[in-house]
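Lecture 7 notes: from sequence to structure.
We start with the chain below.
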Amino acid sequence: MKKLFYLPVFHLILAVCSCGGQATESTTEETAPGPGQSAVQDDMSNPNVVQVALGSADHSTLVAALKAANYVDALTNVGPFTVFAPTNAAFDALPAGTVENLVKPENQRNLRDILEYHVLLGVYKPGDFVNERNLGTADGRSVSIAVSADGIVTINGAKIIATVPASNGIIHVIDQVLLPK
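Predicted structure tokens for the same chain:
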């Protein structure tokens, strides 16, 4: 029994001595988080929702907003996501100065709330939308779906004008910016 007690004590003393009594100090450089999922370079896989937006000339304002809100990494993760992506023209239709005001650092939280209002968790293809159904958004609110007799889908009145699949979800291009009430 005594031999079993001495063995762990011996290992403990050996571990303390091998450290040389020197404490190591970590720097903020060592403990700071890395650049995130968006920094992963992968030219072999299908593009994720952010990469699709980056490749679209019609979504440069959306991409700038995603960057200003520090929301790029969240949408490059696995998902799956359904993203309602307003076009540049949709952002241009907002009152003058709205976008410029939202991308200011002090408005980052408000901008992120608006962007999260454009995201559903899960993949909703056009055929999955049901008339008069509410769907929960990433910010905890909900959007209202309307499907017309001819199959046109609108989200809070914004018309889906195109649908693009992505590796981590689906993008529905819309003709208006969705603003939470």
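Points to note: Residues 4-19, 21-29, 32-40 have pLDDT under 50 and may be disordered. The longest helix spans residues 2-18.
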